[in-house]
Amino acid sequence: MSEAVVLEHAKNAGTDFLMYTGNFCGYCTAAKRLFSRKNLSVTEYNFDEHPGLRQEVVAATGHRTVPVIFDLRSGDVMFIGGFDETNAYLR
User: Fold this and answer.
1) Average pLDDT, stretch 21-47?
2) DSSP structure string for the chain
3) What is d(CA 17, CA 43) in angstroms, rounded to the nearest whole number?
4) Across the strands, what pairs with 81?
5) What pLDDT does residue 25 have?
6) What digits encode the pLDDT tens for the residues 3-19?
7) What is the phi/psi pair of residue 64, to 5°?
8) Confidence of residue 2 (pLDDT cuts 50, 70, 90)
């Protein structure tokens, strides 16, 4: 079921990227700025506002820190990783 949650969020996003975040996360803020600078749209789900969502995303990706970022531009849901991976990916 975990992967189904991510796929449903991606399907409904209508943006270039899907990002899961947390409160007080400097890397999440940096990722938002990166997307803004590159004129890329992003749908954000904050783990602190959605109880139980973190466990679903960790189960689907194995990624335990925030942000958790997916590229949706190709029509497929491609897991990138966190901020560092996304920053390198978009160069």
Assistant:
1) 98
2) -HHHHHHHHHHHH-SSEEEEE-TT-HHHHHHHHHHHHTT--EEEEEGGGSTTHHHHHHHHH---SS-EEEE-TTSS-EEEESHHHHHHHT-
3) 6
4) 69
5) 97
6) 999 999 999 999 999 99
7) -100, -10
8) confident
Rounded average pLDDT over 76-82:
97
Going along the chain from its start, the domains and CATH numbers come out as 2-89 (3.40.30.10)
Give residues with Cβ within 8 angstroms of 72, minimum separation 6. Answer: 10, 13, 15, 16, 17, 18, 78
pLDDT band at residue 1 under the 50/70/90 scheme: low
* Paired residues of 46 in beta bridges: 21
For residue 43 the two structure tokens come to 């749908």
pLDDT at residue 22 in the model: 97
Query: What's the Cα-to-Cα distance from 91 to each of 13, 33, 38, 85, rounded to whole Å?
Result: 23, 14, 10, 10
